[in-house]
Amino acid sequence: MNIIEIFGTRVFNDDAMRKHLTKGVYTSLQKTRELGETLDPEIADDVANGMKDWAIEQGATHYTHWFQPMNNITAGKHDSFLNFSDDGRAILDFSGSALIKGESDASSFPSGGLRATFEARGYTAWDPTSPAFVRDKTLYIPTAFCSYGGEALDAKTPLLRSMQAVSREGVRLLRALGNTTSTAVIPTVGAEQEYFLVDRKLYEERLDLKLCGRTLLGSKSSKGQELDDHYCGRIRIRISKFMHDLDERLWSLGVASKTKHNEAAPAQYEMAPIFSTANIACDHNQLTMEILRTTAKEHGFACLLHEKPFDGINGSGKHNNYALSTDDGINLLKPGRNPGSNIVFLVTLSAFITAVDEYADLLSMSASCPGNDRRLGACEAPPSIISIFLGGHLTDTLVMAAHGDAAKGNGKAMLKTGIDVLNDLLKDESDRNRTSPFAFTGNKFEFRMVGSSQSISTSNVVLNTIVADTFSKFSERLEKSDDIQKTVREIVADTLENHGRIIFNGNNYSKEWHEEAKRRGLPIHSGAIDAYKAFVEEKNIKLFERMDVFTPVECRARYDILLENYIKVVSIEAKTLFEMVKRQIIPAAVNYCGKIAASFNQLSAAGVQNAQVQSHLEKLSELASAIIVRADKLEEVVAKINDIANEELKAHFIRDNVVPVMEQLRESCDALEAITDRKEWPMPTYTDLLHRI
Ligand code: ADP
Ligand code: MG
Q: Which of 28, 44, 62, 471 is deepest in the core (most CB within 10 A)?
């Protein structure tokens, strides 16, 4: 199979456009795609027609305005191209206005009160910067989704707004630094995606996996990831077949899937695409999650995208690799041969350090969800404190630059392998610090907190906005300066002085770092519902307003949506756990106790008095009663949720009163599972799920 022959075949890409549009229409559309100019309404019908002809060639019968409501997944209703001509014949039809604007009932999507019920209408608007594609006989048109009043109801609108902001402020900064050629600054993103695969049949037998995407109970397998024998190990044949199929589908849809490997936990895997512009990367990541799920199903697997499907082994995240590039190909985060005298790099790096220190709360918020609450801060994932890893060399370079000493040479060292036949290797600019939540990795930053099920939109909206705002402040200083070199030195020095506390090159998993971070006054992330508050902090509302990314009303709406989501997700988990315990675990426990009791009676009747068997039976029976008591308690607290009027209080009540009861109930169930006959346990175990695929 030839990748080049497959790649992008289902995408309305440049080749397809050239073939299906006239030269004039193509050129005009090109301006819209590349320069962000509004589409000339005169050509809309021609573009739509060309797109339709291409899509029909691809076997499409329908089109859909594909959008990303605020629930981390995508949506769209599908219309066929069918219409009737004036003389009543069936024709295939797709107009410019149908391409550009769609209408969708917004009332069934999260809106955080933005949508009054009497104005239920929502609009979808074509995003020409992300290519349309054909999937499952439908032409998918990427769109932004907003309310009747124009408020953003989706993940794409704020992302596009924030891309505009960082481009505007980026170009302004470059001008102030003497660049006269670049006309746009574009955030580039590569999102690595971790996931689990479990056998579909086993998955179907677990209500928690089906309804919640994670195990709500389960005694640990005797073998977890202790031996480090899964990470990058041989990919099993069944998995490999799945991965090949996945790649082919992704390639045909234009997703540049590049890397695949086994991850650290058993049954855990990763895929990484080649980076693209933030907007396309976000669309592609959504598409990747969908194709992962559907392909898994066809291969007899279920793909788990939850941040923590299993207790006791690693959870899954998404590494959001991020850099800024100009339209003429300069990566602002590329250190170059002599980073100490590369003023664009020094100022950009300073902007990231300043921005991340000032708005660590927003970054935490962007990576917060109920699932990630179970992953962040555990010893496998980024910790609950945001810091930046620069590496020793780069940190020294900054310090020297602040003192007017450009670091000498390129700072790269040779890595001696000590084996004659092997070449000595050029060492990387920075070492890999796998423990850092925000690490500089050569020419980009890697934000590692994002959860595996989350849209990457919010994190990139935050990154674009906070960097844009800092650029604007630096530009103000530089525009007034009559000695640019000196002002750059001052910017670097001030950054180190005021924001150097955010730089940490050590082990983020260590206990000492917690202490140290406290001394430095860095905020410690205490879970999703506290992190969400960042959306309604005055300084952040002002920031988003200043950068034209969110209005204050939109900020409050997003906060409400996040809270509402937390409440719903954990309530569903609580109810699912209750159902499993009442309808599966308790009957099995009582049954099994009865069987052991009968055996015990038989032994006694035969004259064998066995104290150990008796105490085993007592233990089983004690656990069974603990489970019944705790399940009743769970029912009681869940019933109270709806009596609480205020959403914020509701979320707190769930975190402080429902989650702990769920944990206790689970503890009893897991203890019972560990000493119950496998044949009597009513659902697949951790060993089945993790090791039988
Ligand atoms: P690592 O080994 O650090 O994870 P990779 O080279 O494998 O590094 O890249 C990880 C991800 O980062 C990939 O998706 C890659 O395309 C992406 N990436 C590389 N360069 C950039 C860049 N300039 N901007 C955004 N993402 C990038
Ligand atoms: Mg990586």
A: 471
Q: What is the pLDDT of residues 20-29, one digit of tens each?
A: 999 999 999 9
Give distance in angstroms: CA of 275 to centre of ligand 2.
Answer: 12
Residue 233's nearest CA partner among 258, 257, 261, 198 is 261
Ligand 1 centre to CA of 443 (Å) is 9
Helices 392-402, 343-358: inter-axial angle, 10-degree rounding: 110
Return the CATH number of the domain spanning residue range 162-550: 3.30.590.10
CATH 1.20.120.1560 residue ranges of the chain are 566-691
Helix (H, G, I), strand (E, B) or coil at 25: helix
User: Ligand 2: distance of its center to the CA of 192 in Å?
Assistant: 7
Residue 185 scores a pLDDT above 80:
yes
* Domain 3-153 sits in CATH 2.30.30.30: no
How many CA atoms lie less than 13 Å away from 635 in the CB half-sphere? 11
- CB proximity list for 185: less than 8 A, separation 6 or greater: 166, 167, 169, 170, 171, 174, 324, 325, 326, 327, 332
Cβ burial, residue 142 (10 Å; 0-12/13-18/19+): buried
The percentage of residues in the chain with a pLDDT greater than 70, rounded to a whole number, is 95
Looking at the chain, which residues constitute the CATH 3.10.20.70 domain(s)?
3-153
Look at residue 646 and give its three-state secondary structure: coil
CA distance 226 to 313: 9
Ligand 1 binding pocket, CB closer than 6 Å: 188-190, 192, 259, 272-275, 321-323, 331, 441, 443-444
Task: Report the alpha-carbon distance of residue 428 to residue 412 in Å, rounded.
Answer: 7
Amino acid at 658: V
Per-residue pLDDT at 117 exceeds 80: no
CA of 131 to the centre of ligand 1 (A): 22
CA dist 197 and 504 (Å) reads 35
Both structure tokens of 112 = 């955080």
Note the Cα 636 to chain centre separation in Å: 34
DSSP 503: B
Q: b vs e for 553-573, b when ≥16 Cβ sit within 10 Å of the residue's Cβ? A: ebbbbbbbbbbbbbbebbbeb
Q: Where in the chain is the domain with CATH 3.30.590.10?
A: 162-550
Query: Is the Cα torsion angle 425, 430, 436, 437 positive or negative in sign?
Result: negative
**Checking DSSP bridges between strand 414-415 and strand 62-66, what pairing results, if any?**
unpaired
CB 42 within 8 A of CB 25: no
Give the 3-state secondary structure of residue 565: helix
Alpha carbon nearest to ligand 1 atom 6, residue? 274
Neighbour tally for 673: CB within 10 Å: 22
Cα of 109 vs its chain's centroid, Å: 20
What would the pLDDT profile of 332-367 be if each residue is shown by its tens digit? 999 999 999 999 999 999 999 999 999 999 999 999
Q: Which CATH architecture has domain 566-691?
A: Up-down Bundle (1.20)
